[in-house]
Design a protein that fits this description.
With 521 residues, the protein is of the alpha/beta class. A hairpin with a 4-residue loop joins strand 2 and strand 3. The C terminus is likely disordered.
């Protein structure tokens, strides 16, 4: 029995049509769904920016994908093993005959999952050293500019501004951000980095301290301040940062990364600046104490000066013992000056006499006399030196003449010996040259005889011929010739032009030349 013989009215589907119909049916039946399950097989976004993983429970599993645009907007990034609630569309993947959910939003399934995620993230950032107490810096005692990162419409910003105005009015810059929702973490991180990017001497003053503030709420409401991007921005901030997120019992990860944690936004404002009235009172108190201390010092120094003045002797008594020796010295000064003058005058006269003897004119006259006495000595010395040089040159010339004669005789002997050697080599060279010519001639004759024996013209001389086509290429068989083909037959004494007559032969036969045409034999 043949299986394909039974008639049927079932319509015929193509694979693509069936896949499309299943896709439409599934999408129309379910559309958007909220799906709870555990993330499995997540390895991070691919190079395209899309993310792929699976959602599973105790008995089933479904593939899930998050497109690049939706992945960037996710409030919670997928993590392997995390139980989540996914919102997305159910669709099929026809190329693999699978169905999947295209996720558009993702959130942890309950507070327990959030706490587990928060604890895991806290351990990770702690291991990186972002919460190390050694990294924390003290806030300035009296900042000139205070930067506030919070919502511009909530009660938090009004509380902070009111508290700062009461305690110590300062220049305040408010960077408005969303403190709840999907874009909260990105805006808060951008605000912290934006304040740090301000130039110190720019048009907008750079804050000396930052306050990141938000009112109380549930863990979901405060979750934006637990995101890594916010924690890393707070840890990287070069400006000291005060975290005031939630009430006193609320704790977020930014509290660990900040330099100071305030239990409430109002407490953050109190920690940022001192109380102006108390500061003024303290300064006034210090000023009064400083004045009193200076008055006591001046009074003490005045009393000490008076006591010292009373112990000093009278001016006349101090100067009387010194005046008498001074008068004695004054009486001796006149004669001493006259004696000193006469002594220096005598020394000056002696120096003038020495200068006369050592004057340039006297020195030149003395040297002229010595030069006149030495005038004959150079002439005699020069004449003797010239005589010695002349004798040395004559002796050297005689030696050169003798050496040149010996050198000429040695060179003549060497030339004679080389001439004899050349004659002997010439006598030997001529017979050798002719013997070499004879050997070359015999070898050439043998090569010529071999060439003649191998030359094809010798074969032609024995009665053979070569048949060539119009291009000059040899034809070795009758099968290569065709009717009316022009041929050239080369003999030993010349070449004959001819054409092929008759059909092409079917076998190779001898050919003969008759009446200038080529025929089959």
């Amino acid at each position: 029995m043949r299986l394909d013989a039974a008639p049927t009215n079932a319509p015929e589907w193509t694979v693509s049509d069936l896949a499309g119909a299943l896709k439409r049916t599934l999408e129309e039946s379910f559309g958007y769904v909220r799906l709870r399950g555990e993330i499995s097989g997540y390895r991070g976004p691919h190079g395209s920016g899309h993310a792929y993983f699976s959602l599973k429970d105790e008995s089933a599993c479904i593939d899930a994908c998050v497109w690049k645009g939706a992945f960037a907007k996710l409030r919670f990034k997928p993590q392997d093993g995390l139980e989540v609630i996914a919102l997305g569309r159910i669709t099929t993947f026809p190329s693999r005959s699978k169905y999947q959910i295209v996720v558009e939003s993702l959130q942890p399934a309950g507070v327990g999952a959030l706490m587990a995620l928060l604890e895991e993230r806290r351990r990770k950032l702690t291991a990186e050293g972002l919460f190390d107490p050694a990294r924390k810096r003290p806030t300035p005692y009296l900042p000139r500019v205070i930067g506030v990162v919070t919502s511009p419409t909530g009660a938090v910003v009004r509380d902070i501004l009111h508290r700062l105005a009461d305690r110590f009015p300062r220049h305040i810059l408010v960077w408005p951000v969303r403190v709840q929702g999907e874009s909260c973490s990105d805006e808060v991180a951008a605000a912290i980095r934006g304040f740090n990017a301000l130039a110190t001497d720019g048009a907008i003053p750079r804050p000396d301290v930052l306050i990141v503030a938000r009112g109380g709420g549930s863990i979901e409401d405060l979750w934006g301040f637990n995101e890594e991007i916010v924690v890393r921005a707070a840890a990287e901030s070069a400006i000291p940062l005060i975290s005031a997120v939630g009430h006193e019992t609320d704790t977020t990860l930014i509290d660990h990364a900040a330099d100071v944690r305030a239990p409430t936004p109002t407490a953050a404002a109190e920690q940022a600046v001192p109380v102006q009235v108390e500061l003024v009172d303290g300064v006034n108190d210090l000023a009064w104490r400083h004045v009193e201390a200076m008055q006591r010092v001046v009074k003490t120094r005045r009393e000490a000066l008076r006591a010292t003045a009373r112990a000093l002797p009278a001016p006349g008594a101090l100067l009387g013992s010194k005046r008498q020796p001074l008068e004695l010295v004054a009486q001796q000064l006149g004669p001493a000056l006259q004696h000193n003058t006469r002594h220096h005058e005598a020394q000056l006269n002696k120096a003038a006499q020495r200068l006369v003897r050592l004057s340039p004119t006297a020195r030149l006259l003395s040297l002229q006399a010595k030069l006149d006495g030495l005038d004959e000595r150079p002439r005699r010395a020069l004449a003797g030196s010239m005589t010695q040089r002349r004798q040395a040159l004559e002796h050297l010339g005689h030696r050169l003449t003798v050496a040149r004669g010996a050198l000429l005789r040695a060179e003549a002997d060497r030339i004679a010996r080389q001439r004899d050697t050349a004659f002997r080599l010439g006598e030997r060279l001529v017979p050798a040259f002719f013997a070499q010519l004879d050997r070359k001639a015999v070898r050439l004759a043998k090569e010529a005889q071999l060439f003649e024996s191998l030359n094809y013209k010798s074969v032609l001389a024995r009665g053979y011929a070569i048949v060539r086509d119009a291009n000059g290429d040899p034809i070795s068989s009758a099968a290569e010739a065709h009717p009316a083909q022009a041929l050239a037959i080369e003999f030993a004494d010349g070449t004959v032009r001819t054409t092929v007559d008759g059909p092409r032969p079917k076998r190779r036969v001898p050919i003969a030349v008759m009446q200038g045409s080529l025929f089959d034999a």
